[in-house]
Amino acid sequence: MTQVLCIGSVLWDMIGHSASHMKQGSDVPGRITRLPGGVALNIAMTLKRFGVDPVVLSSVGRDAEGDALISACKGMGIDCDYVYRSDDLPTDRYMAIEGANGLIAAIADAHSLETTGEKILAPLTLGPFGTPESPFSGTISLDGNLTQNLLEYIAVSPLFAKCNLCVAPASPGKAERLLPLITHKRALLYVNLEEANLLCQTEYQTASEAAQALLIKGAHRVLVTDGARPACDAGQGQSLLQTPPDVLETRVTGAGDTFMAAHMAAELAGAARAEALHHALETAARYVSGDTAL
Q1: pLDDT by residue (tens digit) across 264-279?
Q2: Which DSSP letter does residue 42 get?
Q3: What is the rounded CA–CA span in Å between residue 294 and residue 292?
């Protein structure tokens, strides 16, 4: 197995899903589920499914919810041995409402992760994954649930100078936190069109246009998705466009994380860029259609 560090949010997802078309103020029947989630954990779960060995670096409370979350992760074969466990901070949570017309609203409570800050990076400074004298040289996934200050530190830290850095905003509301990482020479940015436009502060109409704009801003490589419309992988002298499969959406929470992890797994396995993009789009389409779990 290939080992990947997944740095970011590990929490409980509370998802309310209804088959009805919803709008503000809707009160409809549906199902409410609690699932292990968070961007870092969603990525880790999908990587595990594709034969990659993920290690999560995050913050989880030393409370009943945290114990249950760590137990669930270990049951899936996710290495949580280096997660920071806080005695006085609660386990983070995410709450979303989904209808037949997609995501209606969501709130991410990642305050414990934000408060913990750089303590979650101890395994990269004190070992076993790296030290200042011998930085980690493998692959790291990183998400925008970390604070702006911590992401700014990571962007210039020698601890991250030799790794392959795969970066996701976590949500459009946190996209601008990634601005310091745009010019990182070993970073691959995974963003949707809305997030790309926020980073560029311009309203582009296609993934291809937004991807080229991010390259002009200094990005090394970017992968921009746009729902059912063509996605673009641009950078390193190459630009690819592919259209996702046409499927009926039954869920949306976690789809972007699934896409990113599937793409990472394919490239780690040696797939060519076109093949990796195709694999990621197919995997994400199966996920939103409800055919596969994370």
Answers
A1: 999 999 999 999 999 9
A2: H
A3: 7
Model pTM? Answer: 0.93
| Whole-angstrom distance, CA of residue 211 vs CA of residue 278 | 17
Distance CA 232, CA 190 (A): 10
Summarised one tens digit per residue, pLDDT across range 31-79 is: 999 999 999 999 999 999 999 999 999 999 999 999 999 999 999 999 9
Least Cα distance to 135 among 278, 5, 275, 259 occurs for 5
Residue 235 contacts residue 220 (beta carbons within 8 Å) = yes
Tokens of 51: 């034969």
- Domains, the chain: 2-289 (3.40.1190.20)
- The answer to whether the bond into 128 is cis (omega within 30° of 0) is yes
Are the C-beta atoms of 139 and 163 separated by less than 8 Å?
yes
The answer to whether the CB of 56 falls within 8 A of the CB of 40 is yes
Q: Are 106 and 171 in contact (CB under 8 A)?
A: yes
Alpha helices in the chain (DSSP H): 39-49, 64-75, 111-116, 122-125, 148-156, 193-200, 207-216, 255-268, 273-289
